[in-house]
Amino acid sequence: MRHGKISVWHSGNKVNILSGMQTQSLKERLCGLLVLEPLKPQQALWLTPCNSIHTVAMKYDLDLIYLDRHNTICKLVENVKPWRVSGCLKAKVTIELPAGSIKQFRVQYGDRCEWQD
C-alpha cells in the first residue's frame, strides 16, 4: 500500500487535501478496507483501476467518489451501507472515504482529484 495525499480541485483551485492510501496490487484492491483499520476523518483509499466496489463484511458506511480517465469526478455516492455493491462504468478510479466526507468537504461533480506521493 502506497501512502500520499489526495488533492481535490474545484474550478482550478485546490480546495481539499486528504491523507491517502493507494492500492498497488490486485490483492490490495480485492481486500481494500476489509483488512485495514477503519478510515479516519480526512483519510481516503484510492483504488485504481477500479470502477466498482462491494461493502460485504464492512462494519461501517462509506462515501464513494468515482473518477473518469481524466481524474474528474463522474459519480458521487454517499452513505453506502455494509453488504452493498456500487459501480460506475465510466470510472477508472474509485476513492473510498468515511461516510459524511462528501458533504463535509463539499465535493462536487466535475471537481478533479489528484494523487500525490
- Give the radius of gyration: 13 Å
Global shape: globular
Instruction: Work out the count of structural domains.
Output: 1
* Lateral arrangement of strands in the main beta sheet: 6-5-8-3-2-1-9
Proportion in helices: under 10%
Largest sheet, strands/sense/barrel:
7 strands, mixed
The SSE string, one letter per element, is: EEHEEEEEEHE
Q: What is the CATH third-level topology name? A: Jelly Rolls
Number of strands: 9
Low-confidence stretches: none
Task: Give structural notes.
By secondary structure, the protein is mainly β. The protein has a single domain (2-116), classed as Protein of unknown function DUF192 (Jelly Rolls, Sandwich). The chain has helices at 26-31, 101-104; strands spanning 2-10, 13-22, 43-47, 52-54, 62-67, 73-80, 85-87, 93-98, 112-116. Strands 6-5-8-3-2-1-9 form a 7-stranded mixed sheet, with no helix packed on it. The protein has a two-stranded antiparallel sheet with strand order 4-7. Strand 5 (62-67) and strand 6 form a beta hairpin. The longest helix is centred in the N-terminal third of the chain and has 6 residues, at 26-31. The protein is globular.
